[in-house]
Amino acid sequence: MSVLARRAAAPSWQRAFLAPLLVVLVATTVLPLLYMLALSLGPKQGQLSVGRPQGLHNYRELLTSSEVWHSLLLAVIFLVGALVVELVLGVGTAVLLDRLLPGNPVVRMLLLWPTVLPPIAVALVFKYVLQGDIGLVSYYLSKVGIHQAWLTEPVSAMAVIIAIDIWQYTPFVILLALAALTAIPHEVREAAALDGAGPVSVARRVVLPMIKPAIIAIAMLRFIDAIQVFPTIYALTRGGPGTSTQLLTYFNYQAFFGQLEFGYGAAIAVLVVVFTIACVTLLLTWQRRAEAS
């Protein structure tokens, strides 16, 4: 019996169990995407109700807007800066912990707590400790002659946003990398050690190549989450100073809710979805090649 025939012959109760999932998927993903697409084809400013399509004028304005491209560039800078550091620190720390404290549940529990904190709460705490000369960090740095306006200078404001993401989500990368390391047979490492390879050589030539598909999957998960960064920017900088931290998602919020440009905001949201799908597709292709090698 062919695969299609076996699927067609599946018991009705199995299909019934899938029905609620399909309903939720359509209601929370498919319908909002269709609504957003229809809204983007309407007038730039107007009501939230979908009317007759009026063409691609929102997309033409979007593609010729320097503000949009500036926000997209800032998003790329944030993603590259945050994800590269998180992956390097996370995977490196995981390899070290797997060698020194293998299977320690206490370590995993301690690593989990920064990730489960609400991003808005984390941002507010950082805002307090970095605020002017009265913040905790700023106060003690001023005692040694370092006066840094963390959130009122473009470069340092972006650096703070990247640093917060690194602080909160590097433990998440460590946990996932530790899970991937458990799939490596212990005999493989012993064989490499018997051949005279040291710990660094084993990690670089044996361990990392074996978990490369998992590392790409971790990068993809973090990318999907990081592209949606919003609470941190809203709580810390509101896109400032100027537009130096106005990433694409915050620019979308400003257009949609700040200026009530619903059609234009929907077009920006479509751009975010297309950009995300394109990057995820590249990562999936890279992952398949890593699995086949």
TrEMBL record:
Keywords: Cell membrane, Membrane, Transmembrane, Transmembrane helix, Transport
Subcellular location per the Swiss-Prot or TrEMBL entry: Cell membrane
Transmembrane regions: 16-38, 72-97, 109-130, 157-181, 214-236, 262-286
InterPro entries in the record: MetI-like, MetI-like_sf
Domain ABC transmembrane type-1: 72-283
Membrane topology: Multi-pass membrane protein
Family under the similarity heading: Belongs to the binding-protein-dependent transport system permease family.
Protein name: Carbohydrate ABC transporter permease
